[in-house]
Structures
1.
Amino acid sequence: MMDEHWIDPTIPLIDLHRHLDGNVRLETILDLGRQHNLPLPAWDVEGLRPHIQVSDPQIGVMAFITKFKWLTAVMVDYEACRRIAYENVEDAWSEGIHYIELRFSPWFMAESNGLDPLGVVEAVLDGIKIGSQDFEIKVNVIGILSRTYGPEKTLVELEALLAQRDHIVALDLAGDEVKQPGELFRDHFRRAREAGWMITVHAGEGTNPESIWQAIRELEASRIGHALAAIEDPALMDFMLEHQIGIESNLTSNVQTSSIPNYINHPLRFFLDHGLLATINTDDPVISNIDLQHEFQIAAPAAGLTIEHCHQAQRNALTIAFLTPEEKDTLLT
């Protein structure tokens, strides 16, 4: 278990930024591969590991995303999607997490095996619902639009998610931030806000501060995933502080995508020192070969964070979680 001096035991342990489609157990990949006669590159965990997990920094976010190949390949049917979602809940519970927001892209999960995004959404939500009943953990769901596919295909994703709008708390925009800028998705996010969803956007991970400004001003994001480029714009940091815009930091994955050169250059400690509502999260645990304990115990100290920084990040996570005040009070008790 986690060395508890890095966490405050009086505050819930929370992960706000975890892609469930980036967290498929190696054992599950092998099992589904055997069941469905898939051409996996290896047939044991250690042989499979280098094909899925990142050992050296990749040349950018999109190179990192190629590691998803075998994770999505085993999403052969809706039962597989349901199982993967269920196991994500179990994994979070096993890590000692009290509240987690799991996010997923219906099109990304559906594409490899020609599934219907509507069916994927239903299966994922069902797996999470059953997992939440079986394990003592609070889970909320965030839908993702994979901007990599462009505005038209993400509209199909949006429709699939809206069909289950009452079981989803927020919409996210992820994928190729450089080639598919946020302004292409204004109408998508207007509809999401009209549906009553909160908004979080991957921005400033591989681009400049303008991407973050756009996400806040035009998409009306109340949280930003990664937000690394904010450090380059003091006015943006001040704006985020004044308007309480949350930051979902992911230390290890930012090093692995080469978005930053190493841990010590990560801006998280500067965000925290500035008073920003920055948090510590896992992103894609299986691909990164980490869990939330690793991010607090290993990655945070390597990034120059103190114990108090970690406690501050914990408090921030509860503050910016997509929960009602009553739900936050329940978590605290």
2.
Amino acid sequence: MDVNNLKELYAEVDKRMKGLVEHARRELSGVRTGRASVAILDSVHVDAYGALVPLNQVASLSVPEPMLIAAQPFDPSLSGAIEKAIQAANLGLNPNNDGKMIRIPIPPLTDERREELSKVVHKLAEESRNGVRQVRRDANDRLKKMLKSKNISEDEERRALEHVQKLTNDHVKSIDDVQEKKDDELLNR
């Protein structure tokens, strides 16, 4: 983080924190809630053409029914590889492959499984909150260096530390909101 003034520092901190909130959103969208959603397959990568490729780049994904995801491979010869990749992803899904279309039924979640997934949601959210706090630590260290090298006054440093803390609080609140929404989906369905 090489910045020359406070505005650049704030912009950099805000950008990094927003990235962490977005990462939390993506991670949590992949946690299954008992309803079919193509987002739960975001982590699936298929061994195709000698490389690991995201599932959505080798197949068209759709949700024809509330408890079913359909994957239509662009290249039918990849059906087996897609089926294996879904099973290997440890999502608790058992795809049915008819050669042309892969149907992925979404089993209903048991109360026990909902509790396990809730713990996963909390762990992912906490990792993102820790990332936001790390950005704050980096910014605070940078502010102390700016003060030491006489680039800013003590008053400016104090105001800047307060501003960085406000950014931190706002972004942690965003992560909390995303976590709460996901928990609600998981536990109250």
